[in-house]
Design goal:
alpha+beta, six-stranded antiparallel barrel, disordered N terminus, 5 helices, 356 residues, four-stranded antiparallel sheet, disordered C terminus
């Protein structure tokens, strides 16, 4: 009996200990889970704050970089866009003023072409008698006056020397005579060209042929250069070239200082129709600043300010102003590009030392 009671007591105590251990283990697991959740939330909370701060810093840096690269906008601070320059700069940049006025924008056609010799001023010089060249004085490119002796020839018939003289003033463009060489009456020993005038031969397509007339004004500009000149169309070929399928329109230019060299490629702008009267300014007055079209006005003596404008059609000289300027306003018609460059360099100077 006593043994039975003792056995029951041992079993009871064992069950109590097992149950207690399970409760203790469950409690410990729950406690650990709670602690982990708290630490997880704290960890993610701290990371979220750090991420937000980093994102804000990146946004601030991107904005600073954008402001630095683009400079001030015209709407940001109008005073910051005013540029004050010295009188010496105005003179050096050739800055001049003009007034906005009413005018017509000419409809125009652009043609390409090439400078050629005035074929009525090119001379092929040949010997009077076949013989031996005793002297050939001038080289290609040299200028000669009418009557200058170009070469001395010993005649095969008489065995006497005779001279060949320049029939007009001009430049030697070809030479086919060398001392000791035999020459005949059929070959040119010199080709002489008067370059005081040149021809501009323009390629005219059939679709534009009816729009181009003799007497129209053409603005000629050299390709790859700032050389420009005006001339009238003086001749249009009556037949089409069978190989190029083009017609030639010719402009004759006075060639001062030999600036128009035969062989030079050119573009020509020819006015063919005038539109209605509108507010117009010089085309080169319009500049691009901070991705806006602007025209400079003189705000005060030696102080200039860009005004945003909206422009319309243009020809090679004038451009229509839709808005931004009024009739009679003074604007910078020459030197606007130099003022734009001054604004840009001044803006860069203000940002110097920012670490970019």
């Amino acid at each position: 009996m006593q043994k039975t009671v003792l056995l029951i007591g041992i079993i009871f105590i064992s069950m109590t200990l097992v149950t207690g251990c399970r409760e203790t283990l469950h409690s410990a697991v729950e406690k650990h889970k709670g602690t982990s959740d708290i630490k997880h939330d704290e960890y993610h909370g701290e990371n979220a704050e750090e991420h937000a701060e980093e994102h804000a810093e990146e946004k601030a840096e991107e904005k600073a970089e954008h402001d630095h690269n683009t400079g001030h906008s015209l709407a940001h601070d109008e005073g910051a866009e005013e540029i004050i320059v010295a009188a010496e700069f105005i003179e050096m940049a050739g800055i001049t003023l003009a007034k906005v006025s009413k005018g017509k924008i000419n409809k125009s056609i652009n043609l390409s072409g090439e400078i050629g010799f005035d074929e009525e001023r090119v001379v092929h010089i040949t010997p009077r008698f076949a013989g031996i060249v005793k002297e050939a004085k001038y080289k290609v490119g040299e200028y000669v006056n009418s009557g200058d002796v170009l070469a001395s020839i010993e005649s095969n018939q008489s065995m006497t020397h005779y001279s060949i003289k320049a029939p007009m003033s001009g430049r030697i463009i070809q030479k086919h005579a060398v001392t000791g060489e035999h020459v005949s009456e059929q070959e040119s020993i010199y080709v002489l060209a008067d370059l005081s005038k040149v021809w501009v031969n323009l390629a005219l397509y059939p679709k534009d042929a009816e729009k181009i007339k003799v007497g129209q004004l053409a603005m000629i500009s050299a390709v790859g250069s700032d050389i420009r000149s005006e001339g009238l169309i003086q001749y249009i070929t009556p037949v089409m070239d069978t190989q190029t399928r083009k017609i030639t329109a010719r402009v004759v230019l006075v060639n001062r200082n030999d600036m128009w060299r035969p062989g030079l490629f050119v573009n020509a702008n020819i006015a063919v129709d005038a539109g209605r009267e509108e507010l117009v300014i010089d085309k080169n007055a319009v500049q691009i600043l901070n991705n806006k079209q602007v025209v400079f006005i003189q705000h005060e003596p030696n102080a200039f300010k860009p005004i945003e404008v909206v422009v319309g059609e243009c020809d090679y000289k004038k451009i229509h102003v839709v808005s931004g300027l009024e009739d009679g306003m003074e604007y910078v018609n020459n030197g606007a590009f130099e003022l734009k460059a001054k604004v840009i360099t001044s803006s860069l100077g203000e940002h110097a030392g920012h670490g970019h």
